[in-house]
Design a protein that fits this description.
Elements: H1 3-29, H2 37-45, H3 53-60, H4 65-91, H5 97-106, H6 109-123, H7 131-142, H8 144-157, H9 165-190, H10 196-203, H11 210-218, H12 223-248
Helix pairs in contact: 1-2, 1-4, 1-9, 2-9, 3-4, 4-11, 9-10, 9-12, 10-12, 11-12
């Protein structure tokens, strides 16, 4: 894809996440659930673009697999980068200082994976890797969809049942109503053309990212509510995703 189009996709992903997070933070910090506003804002703004989103986009847009293969990794990279850096910043103890914040970031493996991938692409060595690296990587890539969907299923199966209906309903409204509306506005403002625009709109109603639960569990903050957000948004996405996909296509 042209570099300009890729930059627009990157700008969309960044603005979409940060704007949703800001809106959710303003609402939740003043409401009855203000003690959990950090986790709620992350659950409302971060969606499962990896384990769920990549298989979905590949299967939903079979005529545009090259486009999907170009834009979805960008979405995954920016979302994970923002989610984990924001997560560390939000949930690290107040007054911990920059040194502790830097040490916490140094323990996040996804940052090293992103850096390694950018370096490999920049040096153009992905086609010159030795066979003992390239061949197993190829086998793993071929099994991506099955492994990713099974991973989501295992993670959902571990979620306990919760009676906190209010915050879960609010997260669902953000994921399935506010997110696609904001996407439509940003796609229009950034002048992102089809088929990229259709893929972005279809992916905007994906469920809450599992990374939200991972971060919550790491810092022992609202793990149950985070797991429920993942569970219910994933369950309801079986209805919302096909509906929006039919409208886009």
């Amino acid at each position: 894809m042209p570099a300009g189009e890729m930059l627009r996709v990157g700008a969309y992903v960044t603005l979409h996440l940060l704007l949703l997070f800001a809106i959710a933070a303003v609402i939740f910090v003043r409401g009855a659930w203000r003690s959990s506003w950090k986790m709620l804002a992350m659950a409302a703004s971060t969606y499962n673009c990896g384990n769920y989103g990549l298989p979905f986009a590949l299967l939903a847009f079979p005529k545009h697999k090259e486009v999907v293969a170009a834009i979805v990794p960008v979405i995954i990279m920016i979302q994970m980068l923002l989610a984990f850096t924001m997560g560390v910043m939000l949930f690290e103890k107040e007054g911990a200082g920059m040194r502790r914040f830097a040490l916490s970031l140094a323990k996040v493996p996804v940052l090293y994976a992103i850096a390694a991938s950018i370096l490999i692409r920049y040096l153009h060595v992905e086609d010159r890797l030795p066979a003992f690296i390239s061949q197993p990587s190829s086998y793993l890539a071929d099994g991506l969809i099955a492994i990713a969907l099974m991973t989501v299923g295992v993670q959902i199966a571990r979620c306990p049942v919760s009676r906190r209906i209010g915050p879960l309903l609010a997260i669902c409204l953000f994921r399935f109503v506010a997110s696609p509306l904001l996407t439509i506005v940003l796609v229009w403002i950034l002048r992102i053309q089809s088929p990229v625009s259709g893929i972005l709109i279809a992916m905007s109603v994906l469920p809450t990212a599992v990374n939200v639960y991972i971060i919550a569990a790491q810092y022992h903050r609202d793990q149950e509510l985070a797991s429920q957000a993942v569970f219910w948004t994933t369950l309801l996405s079986a209805f919302t995703v096909p509906l929006l996909l039919a409208m886009v296509r």
